[in-house]
Design goal:
InterPro entries: BCAA_transport, Leu-bd, Peripla_BP_I. Keywords: Signal. The structure is a single chain. By secondary structure, the chain is an alpha/beta fold. The chain folds into two domains: about 10-145 and about 280-355, Response regulator (Rossmann fold); about 145-275, Rossmann fold (3-Layer(aba) Sandwich), CATH 3.40.50. Helix content is about 45%, strand content about 20%. The protein has 13 helices and 14 strands. The strands form four sheets. Strands 2-1-3-4-5 form a five-stranded parallel β-sheet, with helices on both faces. The chain has a four-stranded parallel β-sheet with strand order 7-6-8-9, sandwiched between helices. Strands 10-13-14 form a three-stranded antiparallel β-sheet. Helix 1 (about 10-20) packs across helix 2 and helix 2 (about 50-65) packs across helix 12 (about 300-320).
C-alpha cells in the first residue's frame, strides 16, 4: 500500500495560525449573531491527510478573506481515525463551538457527527461523500456532492461518450468509504444500462492490486469501476495501465496525490468531483489565484470545498434571526442560492447541495474538465 506524505507549505501554516488564533485546547466563546466559534475537524495526519490538509487550508483562507472577524476558527486533527475523530468532536463541543466543519472521512464523521447532533450543534460535511446524513439527524448538512451524485455523473459520461455497456467493480469490503462507493456504482450502472459482470474484492495485506487487476481484465469488460480509498488508488491505476477498459474512479481517486503516485498510468481515468480548477465562475478563478499565492501550490477540490463551507456559513449567518447554533441551523435551510467557488449553491429538503458535478478525465497528469 502506498503511504502519502503531505507537506503543508510554510506560508499556509502561517495563514492557518493567524486565522485560527488557537488550535485544539482553545477556550470556549460566547456566540452572538455576528460572531461564531467554528471547529474545523480534519485529517491533518493519517491516511486521509491529502484531503484534510487541503480542506483546512481552504477553510482558513476563506475566513481570512471573507469573514471580517466574524468567525473564530479552531483547528482539530481527527488523525483519519474514528476514535480520534470522536474525541476531537467531543473536545470541540466542550470548547463551546457553535458550528462544526468536518470530519474529513465519512466513516469518521458517521461516528462523530451524532455527538454534535445530540449537542444541538450543526455540522457542515465538507468532504463527506458517502455519509448517510439523514440517518444521523437534521443538523447534518453536506457541502461536497454525495458519492451518488459524483459517481452517477461519471458513469453517465462513460455510457454516453465511451459506449460502456459492461463493467467490473473493484471494492474493499473492510473500508466504509469503499462500501458506500460500491453501492453508488451499482446504482449508477443500473440507471445507465450497464451490466456489472463481476465484482473483485480487495483485501489489504491479502490480495494485491496486480492480482485483482488481472482478474478484472480477464473478461474484457468495457470498463473497470474503482470504489477504492485514495491510499490504494495509485497502485490500482498502475496495475491497470495497460488495460483497454475505460477506467472510472470514485471520489477516492479525485486527488492530486493519487495522480502524483500513479504518474502516466492515471491518464484516461474518468472521475467526477465537486469542483475543477478550470471551473469558469468568477469566485472560483479568484480563489485559485489567492490559494496558490498563499500555499505555493494550486488548490484541489477539497480545498475548494473547505472554502465554500465558509461561504455557505457566512450566508447562513446573514440570514440568522438569532445567534448561536440554533440560529445557524434554522438559517441554513433558508439561504436560497449562494454564489460559491463550487457554483450556485443551494440545499434541497434532504440537506443535499444542488450544484452540478464536475466530470473530469485525467490527461497529462491533470484533471481535465469535460462536463
Amino acid at each position: 500500500m502506498r503511504r502519502f506524505r503531505v507537506v503543508v507549505p510554510a506560508l499556509a501554516l502561517t495563514l492557518a495560525v493567524s486565522v485560527l488564533g488557537v488550535s485544539c485546547g482553545s477556550s470556549s466563546s460566547t456566540g452572538t449573531k455576528g460572531f461564531m466559534a467554528v471547529a474545523s475537524i480534519a485529517s491533518r495526519t493519517g491516511s486521509a491527510a491529502p484531503y484534510g490538509v487541503s480542506q483546512q487550508n481552504g477553510t482558513a483562507l476563506a475566513v481570512s478573506e471573507l469573514a471580517d472577524g466574524s468567525i473564530n476558527l479552531r483547528a482539530y486533527d481527527d488523525l483519519s481515525d474514528v476514535q480520534a475523530g470522536t474525541a476531537e468532536m467531543k473536545k470541540a463541543i466542550s470548547d463551546g463551538v457553535q458550528v462544526v466543519l468536518g470530519p474529513t472521512l465519512s466513516p469518521v464523521a458517521s461516528a462523530a457527527d451524532p455527538i454534535a447532533q445530540s449537542a444541538g450543534v450543526p455540522v457542515l460535511g465538507v468532504t463527506n461523500a458517502t455519509l448517510d446524513m439523514a440517518a444521523i439527524g437534521n443538523l447534518i448538512w453536506r457541502v461536497s456532492l454525495s458519492e451518488n451524485a459524483m459517481v452517477s455523473a461519471s458513469v453517465k459520461y462513460a455510457a454516453s461518450k465511451k459506449s460502456v455497456k459492461s463493467a467490473v467493480l473493484i471494492w474493499e469490503p473492510s473500508d466504509g468509504y469503499s462500501t458506500g462507493s460500491a453501492e453508488s456504482f451499482r446504482s449508477a450502472a443500473k440507471a445507465n444500462g450497464i451490466t456489472i459482470t463481476s465484482e473483485q474484492k480487495y483485501v489489504d495485506g491479502v490480495t494485491t492490486a496486480e492480482a485483482i487487476a488481472a482478474a478484472a481484465s480477464a473478461g474484457s469488460p468495457d470498463a473497470i469501476f474503482f470504489a477504492l480509498r485514495s491510499a490504494v488508488a495509485g497502485d490500482f491505476l498502475i496495475a491497470t495501465a495497460t488495460s483497454k477498459a475505460v477506467r472510472v474512479g470514485g471520489n477516492g481517486f479525485n486527488s492530486t496525490a493519487v495522480l502524483k503516485s500513479s504518474g502516466a498510468a492515471a491518464d484516461g481515468l474518468i472521475v467526477s468531483g465537486s469542483w475543477n480548477i478550470n471551473t469558469s465562475n468568477a469566485d472560483s478563478k479568484k480563489f485559485v489565484d489567492s490559494y496558490t499565492k498563499a500555499n505555493n501550490v494550486a488548490p484541489d477540490a477539497f480545498a475548494a470545498q473547505g472554502y465554500a463551507a465558509i461561504q455557505v456559513l457566512l450566508a447562513a449567518m446573514k440570514k440568522a434571526k438569532t445567534g448561536g447554533a440554533a440560529g445557524i441551523q434554522e438559517a441554513l435551510g433558508k439561504i436560497g442560492t449562494v454564489h460559491t467557488v463550487l457554483g450556485s449553491f443551494g440545499y434541497d429538503s434532504n440537506h443535499e447541495p444542488t450544484y452540478a458535478a464536475a466530470v473530469q478525465v485525467v490527461q497529462g497528469g491533470t484533471f481535465t474538465l469535460v462536463s
